[in-house]
Amino acid sequence: MATTHTLRAKHRRSALRTLAFLSPWLIGFAVFFAYPMISTVYFSFMHYDGFRPPTWSGTKNWTYVFAHYPFFWPALRNTLWLVVIMVTLRVLFGLGIGMLITKIKTATGVFRTLFYLPYLAPPVAATMAFAFLLNPGTGPVNSLLESVGIPAPGWFNDPDWSKPALTLMFLWGVGDLMVIFMAALLDVPKEQYEAAELDGASAWQRFRFVTLPNISPIIMFAVVTGVIAAMQCYTQPLVAGKVASGVIQGAGTMFEPGYPEHSTLTLPQLVYNLGFQRFDYGSACVVALVLFALSMAFTALLMRRRGGLIQAGD
Amino acid sequence: MPTRIPEVVRKAAFALTASTALLLSTTACTGQSATDASDDASKETTLTFWHAWSAPSEVKAVQALVAGFEKTHPNIHVKVVGNMTDDKIDQALRAGGSTAPDVISSFTTNNVGTFCSSGALVDLNPFFEKANIDPQTTFPKAMNQYTQFEGDRCAVPLLGDAYGLYYNRTAFEKAGITAPPKTWSEFEADAKKLTITQGATYKQLGFMPDYHGWETTTEHYMGQFGPTYFDASGKSTIATDPAVAAAFTTQKKLVDELGGFRKLETFRAGLGDEWGPKHPFHTGQVAMQLDGEWRLGMALEAEPAFEIGVAPLPVPDDQADRYGRGYITGTIASIAATSRKQNAAWELVKYMTTDTDAVVAFSNAIHNVPSTLAALKSPDLKYDPRFKTFLDIAANPNSTTAPASVNGGVYLTTVQQLGYDYESGKVTDLAAGLKKAAAQIDTDIAQAK
Fold first, then answer.
1. Which residues of A touch B120 (CB under 8 A)?
2. What percent of chain A has pLDDT over 70?
3. Which of A64, A256, A278 sits opposite B417 (nearest CB)?
4. Which ipTM value was assigned to this complex?
5. B66: number of CA atoms within 13 Å, CB side?
6. Residue B276 and residue B382: Cα distance in Å, rounded?
7. Cβ-Cβ contacts under 8 Å, B25 against chain A
8. Which stretches make up the ABC transmembrane type-1 domain (chain A) (predicted)?
């Protein structure tokens, strides 16, 4: 009995110690994740305008968002477009630039700085600059294209070109990925390249069978963080749409989100529009939950593929 | 290999997380406490007044207005906070607390319906009754309309904005036009006469009709047609009111006649911004401009190389007798429901919005349209003779506004969205588009209720 009692006391002490060590995380988890999460689910079933106490509305908000809110499906399509196209291009471009710079022998620092600097530009300023550069009427890009006889696109003013214009801007700010890829590329053991060369591997084969397996965890990191960032994409499309539309919210006017023709509308913009402009917190919570579910699904899908991507062990 | 977390730890962790979450979520559900106007306005007190003006001259004008009030009410002191956006005001109205405003002033009338129905702002009807002031005979009709919702007057007009037509007199003379157009047919003919193309673009465009041409919003066009947005039961009438379809058709005709949507949009994208000196009307790139009364001062400041003319906007050909009307909106003043000094706050609101001398002086300083019928006629108003056009539009009983709705300006964005789709050719069947938009407006309102 005494032994059991001592064992229990030992377990209890161990449990308390573990809890004590875990407590900072547990408190953070409860306050910054569990509470907002539970609240979001709770409010998605409530009619709540932020002023009057919330009242139960059942699935009304869910039906409204999925069946009657005209911006939801365009925003979802745009968000998915950004996740698939923009993230892919950003990873490829970041990797390409990273590889190029690791190969450069002279003035590496200058190139590194040049490619990294745009990443530091504040999102609003960068978007304003791109809206100026890509202005279909007066922008220098279109003037240049026209001078060489290439038909100039409408960029942020054309629904077919607004997302490519956004992507172009995100590619310009690829400095963060470039730095990460450069570090990973420089970390690949040289002897593996030497062995591959001795075996007569071509440049492509060296990349495919040496570089890629070594940097696959970093590619995974870039893809997962890229997907999450694309899901949360808010500022740039909002500013681009606002600047290009020319509409300034003032007395008697309302801003049309996603100009032109909803093409720059993203799910986070809907959360803001529903919650803080329409005072419909219930529906805003529904969109937030969709966003959360999508992020989880994408991340889970990518993590399941992790085993296939990572071959060199982690 | 990580060791398994002991069961007791897991259970404790779960209990802690869940209880914290539940505790916090239940506190979040607490509604706001109601306040009543039981304060004594004759006692020493300090009010907090939030407003949206930010330009130095405007801030100075607000300070002068408040100084005038403090002189007449020496026991009430006012702490003025400027440059407050609607977002910040919304947050403060929700949160309340000691630093929240007692009196707010907002540039937009869009949220009046939401604020009135949700009780975020105090219903001022009892205050008006107590003070023996009849809002119907004090404020212009349109301003009266946009400051209340379903009988709840939760806002008061504090200066207004009237929309009219600015035109380039010099360009008019060159094109042989002797007077500003009074009907949309005349307007269309003049806009075409004034348009000078240059290659794929314009040297001078008669008028920028696109809904993205800043103030050329759907509701501003429609104001000239006298639309009803809702019927007595609160259902949308945009599909059944011929005025709405007429406004859409007129604008679309202008877009098509002046070069087509794509060409106009490309030209528009390259124009200077609305609030800068390179505004296309100032630079002579567009000869006519639908705009508010503030444009006159801005245009004169830019010292354009032509003479500026001002007139009311045209009306439909079959409503020639309504010429002189315009769209009206403006700034509003209100008392926060969370304020514990509502009687004192009312004294400030009453002074700012109904004292003729105060309204006139503020209007002279800000260059907006006065918001009381008495101030509109005041001999003390100082203005450029052309500004008189806007005073007349504001006082015109046929002038219109967009009514308050339970979900604010959501119905206006729906109408505007249809406008974008119709002008760009995405929607070709206007009747079907209007029907769909009306159904959307009704659904949105049902969702908000």
1. 51
2. 93
3. A256
4. 0.79
5. 22
6. 25
7. 35, 38-39, 42
8. 76-302
